[in-house]
Q: What sequence folds into this?
């Protein structure tokens, strides 16, 4: 049984300028984005993002686009973007661990849509374990909050996919006599 993902909430913040694909890929239900023609990514190479340091996450259009894809229900597509970044980061790094958690969350949501609840639960559990290995605030994300939302999904008190919110630094112009600083928006 396939459960159609909820329509994107266009009130959600967008973190990248990259357009969304024309449809969400759901294995067995929609054309494969690269192997089928015509498809939303036919003729285009797989994402090949460049590496970046965790404290420079804002500079990664691919990271921000992966989050946009995830939040709007393009879980296979976000998995692909995060996987490309994961390969750049290295499997045994803190960044690699974090990206693997995002990959597992995206895959869990896709499995849920495909009606495979047990696989979704297993992937959520593995993603939760990985999230617990990174700082509470990492890569612009409140990981502690995300971890709690994943726990709620696992124990059945939350039914929607946890969203990935970035907390973006905003440069502020200090008034005369005040210290220079940054504030944050979500």
A:
């Amino acid at each position: 049984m396939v459960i159609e993902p909820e329509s994107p909430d266009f009130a959600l913040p967008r973190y990248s300028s990259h357009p969304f694909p024309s449809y969400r890929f759901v294995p067995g239900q929609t054309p494969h984005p690269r192997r089928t023609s015509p498809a939303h990514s036919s003729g285009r190479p797989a994402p090949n993002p460049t590496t970046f340091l965790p404290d420079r996450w804002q500079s990664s259009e691919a990271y921000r686009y992966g989050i946009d894809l995830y939040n709007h229900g393009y879980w296979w597509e976000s998995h692909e973007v995060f996987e490309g970044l994961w390969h750049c980061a290295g499997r045994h790094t803190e960044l690699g661990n974090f990206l693997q958690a995002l990959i597992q969350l995206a895959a869990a949501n896709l499995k849920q849509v495909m009606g495979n609840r047990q696989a979704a639960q297993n992937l959520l559990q593995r993603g939760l374990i990985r999230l617990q290995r990174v700082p509470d605030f990492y890569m612009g994300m409140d990981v502690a909050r995300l971890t709690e939302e994943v726990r709620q999904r696992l124990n059945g008190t939350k039914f929607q996919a946890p969203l990935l919110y970035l907390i973006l630094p905003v440069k502020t112009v200090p008034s005369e006599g005040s210290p220079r600083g940054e504030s944050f928006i979500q």
